[in-house]
Amino acid sequence: MSLFTLKYAPQNSAQILGQQLAVSQLKDFIVNYNTQKHKAAILVGEIGVGKTSSVYALAKELNYDVLEINSSDLRNAENIKSFLDAALGQQSLFFRPKLILIDEVDNISGIKDRGCIPAVVAAIEKSKFPIILTANEYEDSKLKPLRKTALQIDYHKLQYRTISHALELICQQENISYEEKAVHSLARQADGDMRAALLDLHSCAEGLTSDKVFNLSDRKRTESILNVLTVIFKSSTAKNALGSLDNVDLEIGEIFLWMDENLPKEYIKPNDLAKAYECLSRADVFNGRIKRQQHWRLMVYIYDLLTGGVSSAKEEKNPDFVAYRPTMRLLRIWQSNMKNSKKKQIAEKLAKATHTSQRVAESQVGYLQEIFRHSDAKAMAGELNLNNEEVEWLTR
Fold first, then answer.
1. Entry pTM
2. Could you give the 3-state DSSP secondary structure of residue 369?
3. Which of 103, 134, 249, 388 has its CA 20 to 30 A from that of 355?
C-alpha cells in the first residue's frame, strides 16, 4: 500500500489546502515569468506545509516538466554549476516548458559548501526558465545573496482544522473507521505539518481511535520509535533525520535492535542496505568504546550515524508503506534463557553437592539426565535437593 503522502499528493492548485495566497503568487510567477522582475522564487515555510508539493501540482496543472535537485545531493559549487548548466540548456521532454526546483536550499552549508550559493545566484541570473527554491529557514546570512534575485513566497503553518478536514476525507476514501475527536487530536498533534499527520494516519489505518492517537507521539513530546524510524528511513535529506532520536525514551541497545530488525524491510536495494549497515556497525563500535572507556561524549557520533548516516545511505526513499516491527531477538534470548534456566538451577545444586565449579557441574548435567531416565533416582534427587519440576526436566 502506497504512503498516503504519495497517494494523496495534490494534482492541481485547487487540491493544495490552506495556502491559497502562496499558491496564487507562485502560479503568477510561473505563468508570467518573462515579465517578472525576479528570475527565481523561494518558497519559505516549515516542513510539511506544502512547498514542494505545490510546485509539482502546478507543474501538472500548467503542463510543465520539473527538473529537481536536492541541495544535499550536490555539495560543492562545481557540481551545482554543472547540474544547473545542463538543466538550463537541456530541452524539455516533448518540448514542454520546464521548472528548475532546488529543494531545501537552506541545507547548503555556509562554510563547507562555500561557493554553492553564488553558483546558484549566477545560474538564476542567466536562466530562461523559472527557478524555484524551497527553504525551511530564510534568515540565515548565508542565503543573503538570494534575497536580491529571488521572490520570497511565504507558506504559513497549517491550521489544525485544515489538517483535520483532510484527514476525515482520506478516512472516508480509505474506509478507515474513525472517531471525530481522534481526528481533531491527531490534527493538533501534527502542529501544522500535513506530512506528519498523513504518516500518523497511515499508522492507524486499521481504525483511528482516541487511544491510538494518545499513544502516537506528539512531536513536542517523547517520540515513538515508529515515528522516528519513519523520519529516518523516509527523509529525503540527512538534515531532516538528524535529531530525530533526541526525545526517544529507549535505551541505545533497543534502538540498535529496532534499526537492525527493520532496515532490510525498508532498504530493498543491496547497496543502500550495505551502506546503512555500515553506519549501524560504526555506531556500534562507538557504543563499545563508551562501554569500555566511559567516554560518553562519543554518544553524539552514535546518534549522527543512526539518524543522518542511515538516512543518507539510500539513493531514494522506498515509496511503499512498511509496517515496522519490534525485534524478535530479545524474545528468542528470553526463550533460550527459559529453556536453560532449569539446567542452570540443577547445575548449581550439583556443584554445591559435589564441591565443583558451576562450569564443571553444567557439563555433567547430561550424565545426570541419563541416570534419572534409566533408573530410580529418588535418593539422588533427595541428596541434591531437587524439586519436582527439576526431576521432571531430568527425566523427559
1. 0.55
2. helix
3. 388
